[in-house]
Structure prediction request, 229 residues.
Amino acid sequence: MTRTVHLDHPMSGSIMRNVKRALRFAASVALLVCVSSDSGSCASAQQPSSASIVGRWRSLETTRGGIGQVCEFHSDGTVDFGLGAVVEMPWRIENNQLILPPETDGGAERKANLKWLGDNKLSLVSEAAVIELARVGDRADAGNPIIGEWIESREMAGHNFEAYYLFYLSGRLLFVMPIKTQHGSYTISGSALHLKVPGLRPEFRFELTDNLLTLSAPEGGDADRYARY
Prediction:
């Protein structure tokens, strides 16, 4: 289901304003930054392989407005890279309301009534908007139906997007919305990641430790960190 989202959307706020601005420069972005969800701590390093890198990643480092990189490595050797909104925040439910942090320092908490439309559909209802979510995959927690991944289809600034809401039992919410995606391919040779994606460096060194992916230039220097989601 597609709907129009206003930029004063209660669940996004300033993030959505940054996303709209980001649309104007997304095509020129040449950064590789992908990352992890609210997973556990890292353990032993894994031998790099095409199988181990397969999956979705989001950048751990983002702009102050919540803009980062999201990417997905597919098992057939193709890859999708995108600029997008990547935001983590605490959440809780009280009196059948989803409560999120204030949009600004000193502001009021944001609240939305929960309206369940079966086990796999949920509406978040506030004065400003109604967000319609559909569950991705199976229900993750029998005692708390909101736990798990949800998807929302939306239209903004003349573009169609898919936004992902990942509610964790730890009380953290990860919001991810890719806004500009480029398609390409990749291969792996030892610890080298070779990319054929317009505008991106063709080669990176990478290390994979559990759900943490670290990328750096072959000649060294600063490294970028990504996590699965």
User: Anything to note?
Assistant: The two ends are 23 Å apart (CA to CA). Confidence is low (pLDDT under 50) at residues 1-47. Residues 78 and 185 are 4 Å apart (CA to CA). The chain is about 5% helix and 50% strand.
